[in-house]
Design goal:
Layout (H helix, E strand, L loop, with lengths): L3 H23 L4 H17 L9 H4 L1 H5 L5 H8 L1 H17 L6 H9 L12 H10 L4 H13 L3 H14 L3 H13 L3 H14 L4 H14 L2 H12 L6 H16 L2
């Protein structure tokens, strides 16, 4: 018989699976994101020697996907995606500029183009998928691919790769982006945990600060959100779109009764 801690973990995973189905049926969670999260939870159950949960009506029936509606909460979250991607893109560009040739570009060159460094923009998603499939521990290439899917709104594919990364290391970008997608799925409480973990790994990571500020606003933790938003709004290193978004959120907090 499993110990109490394991039983509690199994019970929590099963509750999360049940909630996924309820959120899909209610229209609060995109079915593609739910599928990716469901695969992750099922894999965790199997790792605990627990049989995976049987497919539910929400998982197996095509009617849910066809009749999907979008909740007000998801609309609010989706409206922030563009600004979120600006934040990630700005940080990613800065990060790539600071990398040596042995970074992501070097990995791409070694594996794809015979030791000749190549521009990642010339590599297709299919080529990158082949690289990470053949080299599952190459975090840089997988991170770049996950970011592509994230920025394209292909969250199910992005989640698959981010979870693979998190199985290997607590990468701040992976934690932050999983947190943001979890927020968009309607679970700000769980999203906060991912984002707080990202900032524990890298307190200066701009996207995590911006994402967490939005999550805190949703959770009513406005004092904590204000700390991040004030710093973002006054930083000259932050893209203008992010500063404008922070100023707007601060104004909303101040105007709230």
């Amino acid at each position: 018989m499993s110990d109490p801690g394991t039983r509690d973990q199994i019970e929590l995973l099963r509750e999360e699976l049940a909630e996924l189905d309820e959120q899909v049926i209610a229209g609060d969670l995109d079915p593609d994101i739910a599928d990716a999260l469901r695969r992750k939870y099922q894999a965790q159950l199997e790792a605990l020697d627990e049989p995976p949960a049987p497919p539910s009506d929400a998982e197996s029936g095509p009617s849910v996907r066809g009749s999907r509606r979008v909740s007000g909460r998801t609309i609010v979250g989706a409206a922030l995606v563009g600004i979120a991607i600006v934040a990630i893109g700005a940080f990613a560009v800065r990060s790539l500029e600071n990398r040596s040739q042995g970074g992501i570009e070097g990995v791409a060159g070694d594996i794809v183009d015979g030791n000749e460094p190549v521009d990642l923009s010339t590599i297709t998603n299919e080529q990158m998928e082949a690289v990470v499939a053949a080299n599952p521990d190459v975090i840089g290439m997988r991170l770049a691919l996950a970011r592509r899917y994230f920025e394209a709104g292909e969250f199910d594919k992005a989640l698959d790769h981010y979870f693979e990364i998190l199985d290997r290391e607590q990468n701040p970008e992976a934690l932050a982006n999983v947190g943001w997608m979890t927020y968009l799925s309607g679970r700000p409480d769980i999203a906060a945990g991912y984002l707080e973990a990202a900032l524990q790994r890298n307190p200066d990571y701009l996207p995590a600060q911006w994402f967490l500020a939005n999550v805190y606003v949703t959770l009513g933790r406005t004092d904590e959100a204000t700390i991040f938003l004030t710093a973002i709004a006054s930083s000259s290193d932050v893209p203008q779109e992010i500063r404008d978004g922070a100023v707007e959120l601060l104004a909303q907090i101040e105007a709230a009764p």
